[in-house]
Amino acid sequence: MANVLSLILRIIRTSVLGSFGPGGIGGILGNHRVDILVEFSKSIGVCDPASTELIAIKEVISLFVNLRWKETNIVFESNCINVVSWLRNPLTSPTVFKELVDGCLSSCASINWSIQAVDRLCNLDADRLAKAGINRIADWVIIVQSK
C-alpha cells in the first residue's frame, strides 16, 4: 500500500463583538514534518463562532480539492468542541447548524479526513491569520510550497 501523506489544518475562528459579530477565518495547512504548505485569511462577515468554524472548514475543503490534494489525508484541528462533536455525530447538531454541518460533511465525502479538538493556544499563528481576516477586504491565500 502506498504511503499516504497526512496534512494538518489548524483553523482558529475569531468573532469580535461578543458572541455575534464580524468574523474572520485563517489557517495554516502543514504536513507531518510541520512544514507550512498554505496559509489563508479572509473575512466572512457577521457571524457566530460555531458558524464561523463550520464555514472555515468548508472553505478549506474547497481549497484542498482545488489544489488536487484529494488523495491526501487531512486532519482538521478545531478549538470549537461543539463543531468537533457535530461533525463526528451530525445527529447531535442543533437545527440552526444542520445545513452548515451537512454541507461540511457533503464536502468531505470525497476526501479522507478526521477532526480533533485542540486548544486555541496550540496555534497562535493561525489565530493571528483569523483575526487579520476580520477586516480583510480581499481574501489572502499563499501557497508556500507544494506537498
From TrEMBL:
It holds the Pfam family RVT_3. Transmembrane segments: none annotated. Residues 21-132 form the RNase H type-1 domain. Residues 1-18 form the signal peptide. The keyword Signal applies. This is RNase H type-1 domain-containing protein. Keywords: Signal. CDD domains: RNase_H_like. The keyword Signal applies. It comes from Hibiscus sabdariffa.
